[in-house]
Amino acid sequence: MSTDSAPAAQEPDVPASRTGPPGLAALFLAFARMSLAGFGGVLVFARHAIVDQHRWMTADEFNETFALCHFLPGPNIVNLSMVFGSRLRGIAGGVAAFTGLLLPPTLIMTVLAIIYARFGDVEVLRRSLAGISCAAVGLLIAVVFRMMTPLLKRMDVVVLVLMLGVFTAIGVLRLPLQAVLLVAIPLSIGVTYLMRRKVAA
Amino acid sequence: MSSENPIWALISTFGLMSLFAVGGAAAAVPEMHRIAVEVHHWMTDKQFADAYAIAQLSPGPNVLIVTLIGYAFAGIPGALAATLAMCLPTALLAYYVSRLLNRPSQSRWPGLIQAALVPLSIGLMAASALILAQSTDRTIAGLLLTATVAMVASVSRVNPLWLLLAGGLLGFAGIV
């Protein structure tokens, strides 16, 4: 299999022009590679590979595709692989990217699961994992803060109340996700619609 | 529910959950915890926290914590079934919606809906952090470690892997 990534340097005058749609094997390999590089999240590596390295999409095309995947349910980056692959090579391309993204890490994860089931009781491994969990929660908190910053800066009371409401319902009261979202999503869409109309008027 | 085929239980549980997982994998963690630990007792609180740590530490999308939950409940077939059930239905949905929207004339509704979902998904992620912190940070040292990592990761661009490794070393040394 020849690599499709080489010709990117040939036509520097055409900004981000694509070098023809990549083959299915190239799609599979590219997504497998970005997935295996993505410790603690794949998005950064996906954007780098798709926009900078292979030039399969412009930065704007990538943003639009990701935005779409962000407001659909499910794991964003998994959705992105399917949507991206299918835009280049139809449904077969979508499946190739999807499989490339998921198959190698799933195999690794299964092996880790087996190791954990065998040795999970070993005290040293338990202690190390406990330390890693504490750090992992810290990373999650940092991401939440980064995402929250623009909302706090705008001091949009309604938005902050919605956010706090979901946090309390799920995190403190432990209500089922479906029930909370069935109420919160229509409510939030309605409120956003009304606020935008008020701003426009 | 418990008398059913375990594979089918995993598929129906995660397939349904994924359709409501707005805001990505991190936002779905509280629901995974509720289902896997509190409702079905597929794993203990401790096992769940460990699974989250393993999923964070290893490469690939963090949603693959479902692979570990599936394995804990039903072995290798369970691992594969849970992974596919969590990932495939929404990927197909995304495929169809993207084809539907792939026209030049777009209304402002996609943008509006996305803006409306932002506070909800942040609230969900914050809830994940709280629930996980309650099951991991059982000591003062653990709490301090979490707070330190949160601060360092908020203000700097350190590779997250180093922070996870540091946590592992502190745990290994018996400090946390």
TrEMBL record, chain A:
The keyword Methyltransferase does not apply. It comes from the Bacteria. The chain crosses the membrane at residues 24-46, 91-116, 128-145, 157-173, 179-195. It is found in: Cell membrane. Its main location: membrane. It is a multi-pass membrane protein. Keywords: Cell membrane, Membrane, Transmembrane, Transmembrane helix. Belongs to the chromate ion transporter (CHR) (TC 2.A.51) family. This is Chromate transporter. It comes from Bradyrhizobium campsiandrae.
TrEMBL record, chain B:
The keyword Cell membrane applies. The chain crosses the membrane at residues 6-30, 51-73, 79-97, 109-133, 139-156. Keywords: Cell membrane, Membrane, Transmembrane, Transmembrane helix. It is found in: Cell membrane. Its main location: membrane. It is a multi-pass membrane protein. InterPro entries: CHR_Transporter, Chromate_transpt. The keyword Chloroplast does not apply. Belongs to the chromate ion transporter (CHR) (TC 2.A.51) family. This is Chromate transporter. It comes from Bradyrhizobium campsiandrae.
